[in-house]
Structures are given as C-alpha cells and as structure tokens.
Amino acid sequence: MKTIENIMxxxxxxxxxxxxxVCAQGGYTVYLHDKNDEARTKGINTIxxxxxxxxxxxxxxxxxxxxxxxxxxxxxxxxxxxQADLIIEAVVENLQVKAxxxxxxxxxxxTHTLLASNTSSLPITELAAHTKRPDQVIGMHFMNPVPxxxxxxxxxxxxxxxxxxxTIEQLARNxxxxxxxxxxxxxxxxxxxxxxxINEAIYTLYxxxxxxxxxxxxxxxxxxxxxxxxxxxxxIGLDTCLYIMEVLHEGFAxxxxxxxxxxRQYVKAGWLGKKSGKGFYNYS
Length: 284
Ligand code: CAA
Ligand code: NAD
Known about the structure:
Layout: E1 6-10, H1 14-25, E2 29-33, H2 37-56, H3 62-70, E3 72-75, E4 86-89, H4 95-108, E5 114-117, H5 124-128, E6 137-142, E7 151-156, H6 162-174, E8 178-183, H7 190-206, H8 212-223, H9 229-236, H10 238-252, H11 261-268
Parallel strand pairs: 1-2, 1-4, 2-3, 4-5, 5-6, 7-8
Antiparallel strand pairs: 6-7
Helix pairs in contact: 1-2, 7-9, 7-10, 10-11
The structure holds acetoacetyl-coenzyme A (CAA) and nicotinamide-adenine-dinucleotide.
C-alpha cells in the first residue's frame, strides 16, 4: 500500500470543498485548487462555516477546527500537484475537461502520485488512457454532502492496480467513510439507480401528473426518502444530473435513460438548482 500524506483536490465547488474538508479533518495536508478565484473563496468559507458548526455542536474542539484549517492551503496553480501523493479531481462532469486535467496532472505530478476522480458517471478507464500511469488512476466517488454521507464508491478502471485500489480503500476508511468496490460501467452503482429515478420524477412533472411539491411529498412521505427527488436534483445541480443522464443514455444506448426535455430546458436557461438560485424551487 502507498503512503498518502499530501492530497490535492482539484475543483472547490460543493464536492471539492467537502472532500478537502474531510481530508483536512482526517489529518492530511490538503491543497484545494480551483481556477476560479470566487470558487476558492466560497469553498474555504463553506468549510470554515461547517467546521464552526461542528465546534458549536461540540463534535470537534475549537483547536481541532484550527488544526484542520491550518492543514488546508488554497491553490491557483496546477503546478502544486508536484507536492501531492494523491490528487482527487472534482471539476465539472465533462469528459473533455476532466481528460485534459488528467493529461496535465500526469506531466506535473511525481511518478508515485495517484490520480483519482470524483466523477459521478464517466469512464475511469478512458480518463486513465489520457495518462502514462493508468495503473495509478481510480474513481473515488464521494456523496453529497460529503461531510455527512458515509458512502464512497471506489471504481477500478480496466488497468487500475491492486495497490492503488487498496490504498484508496484504506484512505476512505481513514476518513471514516464506508467504501464499496465498483466496476467501471456508466453511472457505477449509485447513479445508475438514483438518476433514472430523478429523471422519472422530472418526466412526471413534465407530463403534468402532479406539482413539484406533491411529487416530492410522494417520495418523502411514501418512501421515507430524506429529500424528494426534485429537491435532490436541485441540491445535486441540474447540470450534473443532465450530464449523468447523457452518460447513461450514450453508454448503454438504451432509450430508458433518455434525459427528460424539461431537464434540458432548465439547464439551457441556466436554472441549475440551488447553486444558481433557481431550479424546481427558488432559493433567493
Ligand atoms: N454540507 C454539510 N453538512 C450539511 C449540509 C451540507 N450541504 N446540509 C446539511 N448538513 C448537515 C447539517 O449541518 C446537519 O448536521 P448537524 O445539525 O448535526 O450539524 C445534518 O447535515 C442534518 O441536516 P439538517 O437537520 O439541516 O437537515 P436534514 O436532516 O434534512 O439532512 C441531508 C440534510 C443530510 C442533506 C438529508 O436531507 C439527506 O440525506 N438528503 C439526501 C442526500 C443525498 O441523497 N445525497 C446523495 C446525492 S447523489 C450523490 O451525491 C452522487 C452524485 O454523483 C450526484
Ligand atoms: P460544482 O459546479 O459545484 O464545482 C465544480 C468546480 O470546478 C467549480 O468551482 C469550477 O470553478 C471548478 N473547475 C471547473 N473546471 C476547472 C478546471 N479546469 N480547473 C480547476 N477547477 C475547475 O460541481 P460539483 O457538484 O462539486 O461536482 C464536481 C464533480 O463531482 C462532478 O464530476 C460531479 O459529477 C461530481 N459529483 C457531484 C455530486 C453532486 O451531488 N453535486 C455528487 C457526487 C459527485
């Protein structure tokens, strides 16, 4: 198993910030990188706020909060990958963007560095093919919100080595998460099951079967889901939901995964859910 001390997280959005937080709380030194200045500031502010809440709730001490923040450094240079034993990429769910980042990181990072992606659905094997170290590339799929949700899907690409898998599985346990092992197929396990349900909820709205609120109430009170599917879609991000449905649709070539036209229309309008202030609900 490889020794991991320094972790770089690429992308300081809702997932990247959460991953950086749990890694820093787990005792790792973390570089949190985003190309966007505003995203970095928003990311670190969110982490600060959540850690403060944990102090107030007496889950951690004020000293532990301080120590976690000290282990976190914001980065605007991909070159900081030179310091990393592991890089966890959490940028937009787009194969071209992720592939180009993996290609760049492969040139910068030391030869021992592992490259992980938090992708929700994209092929790890293909990302690995954009590097000269496919045996050291792996999927490490956290759930949203990262500090709360226990699951991490660990996805082996075709060429991922057993050493890489074992190292990442142990890291997930060190972060107090529960890892599951998954093979590299579109949507893996979690989104192959979750996202068609969300897409079907959007079709239910599109076909005028019920209101947004009643669709959510159906699944909350009828199935005991903590959030209704439309609230959850807004929470995940409608752009991310659409990307995942497109990956399932293309990957399985099966019309049962056809993204709902209403989802496409909302994304085109810039209604991306909670993060943009409007989706199926208003957040302003
Ligand atoms: N970030 C960090 N912590 C958060 C949070 C966030 N965005 N939202 C809520 N929490 C914390 C709160 O601080 C609270 O903790 P304390 O009160 O103990 O401090 C705790 O979660 C519970 O929150 P609330 O009481 O405010 O609300 P809740 O009981 O409704 O729980 C929830 C919130 C945990 C998010 C819950 O609604 C839930 O489990 N929702 C479903 C989440 C889900 O399905 N996630 C998976 C999404 S799919 C995915 O991640 C994969 C993908 O690739 C798309
Ligand atoms: P987000 O839109 O909140 O954040 C993405 C961040 O990446 C933004 O801050 C953006 O500035 C940054 N970014 C984009 N291109 C970049 C680049 N070339 N270099 C550096 N930074 C760049 O998205 P998110 O919800 O955090 O999702 C990120 C990834 O995590 C996606 O692959 C998504 O599928 C996956 N994921 C999302 C969820 C969810 O519920 N939202 C859950 C699990 C996994």
